Structures are given as structure tokens and as C-alpha cells.
Amino acid sequence: MRSLLSSPTVTYCEQPVAGFVKRPWAALSNLAFFGAGIAIFVHGRGSLLSKLFGVTALIIGTFSTIYDVTYTYGSQLLDLSGMLVFVSLLIFLNMRDLDVSAKKLLVGLTLSLGVSLSAIVAFGGYSGDIIFGLYVLAIIATEYILLKSGKHTHGKLWVIALILFIVGFMLWIPDNKQLLCFNIGLFNGRAMFHYFAATTMYLLYRFYELQLKERVQ
Predict the structure, then answer these.
(1) Structural domains of the chain, count
(2) End-to-end CA separation in angstroms for the chain
(3) Mean pLDDT value across residues 143-166
């Protein structure tokens, strides 16, 4: 089994340096997640939804920062765990709106997270990308059903959020594969993905907030 203190299986254009912070620019770019979390808390004024999204944004920011600071395999798994928690939250909200029992969802998604992380540790390679992609496809499929049935509205906002995420991901890929590297500090590929992903989180919070408001009216 790979040591948690060994080097990550994923590399980026920003190479690790000597010192306490291994990838300083990427580490700083994680402030975008903290900014998104704070903005969600302020806008939500203590609502349950704002707590769910706000805490998740802070978790992602914290885990991703630990990854960029330490540059270890263990922190890489933490970083991926944060992203899986977020997509699991979206699946939970969508499945709940499809009238699936919240209790069953919590149990199922918790087991799914455990199995997913175990598979990633066991198989390595691109397994993390594949599993994350499957979660995203589940979100797209369930959201399509909800929008089509009229249970969700404001589809344009959701589409904008999805497009921003895709743009960020497309900037992340060449940096992750080191196919196209720009030595521009806070605007390297990984950092740009952080900005787009944090913006996507905030927009999705607003999207689900609108769904709640319409149910109350």
C-alpha cells in the first residue's frame, strides 16, 4: 500500500519547492473557496442550506490548502475527499427533491464515499478522475430530470454554473498533464480551476436557495 507521506500520484505545472509551503501559488488560490464560503454564510444568514454549502466550501478550501502546502499522497486524498463531499451534497439535494428518503440517502452516500475512496486507494491511476466523473454525471442526470419535470426552475443559472465548472476543468487538464504550462503565479491552471470551482459553488448555492424559496411561496 502506498505511504500517505509519499509524493502524490498527480502532478501540476507548479513544481514543489523547498520550505514549509510546497506549492505557494496554488495554496494561495484556495482563498477563493474561503471567500465563497464566507459569501454564502453572509447571504444565507444562518439558513441550513447556507450552512451546508458554506461549511463544504470551507472544507474544500482547507483540504486543498493542506494538499498544496504538504504535497503528499495523504493530502491528495484529502483534497479529493473534499470534492467528493461537495458532489455528494448535490446528489443528496437532487435525490431528495426526487422524493427519495433523506435517511436512505445519507446511508447510501456515506457508503458510496467510503467505497469510492477505497477504490481510489486500491487502484490509483485515473480511478479518482473516473469516480469523480461518475458523480458529476449523476448530478447532471438527476438535475435534467428535475428541470424537465418542473420540480426545479431557474435552469439558466444551473447551466451557467455547469459551464463555469467545465471551463475551469478545461484549464485544469493541460496543467494537470503538464501539456501547457504558464508560469504566471496565481493564474496557473490549478489556481484558475479553484476560482471557477469556487464561483460554481456560490452559484449552485443560489440555485438551490431559489428552489427553496419557490416552495415556500
Answers:
(1) 1
(2) 54
(3) 97
Q: How far apart are CA 31 and CA 16, in angstroms?
A: 19
| Segment 4-33, tens digit of pLDDT | 889 898 889 999 999 899 999 999 999 999
Model pLDDT for residues 88-112, shown as the tens digit of each residue: 999 999 999 999 998 899 899 999 9
183 is a domain residue = yes
Task: Report whether 13 contacts 189 (CB < 8 A).
Answer: yes
Q: Which of 67, 66, 61, 108 is nearest to 88 (CA)?
A: 108
For the record, the C-alpha cell of 139 comes out as 448530478
CA distance 193 to 173: 9
Domain that holds residue 146: 80-216
**55 falls within a domain:** no
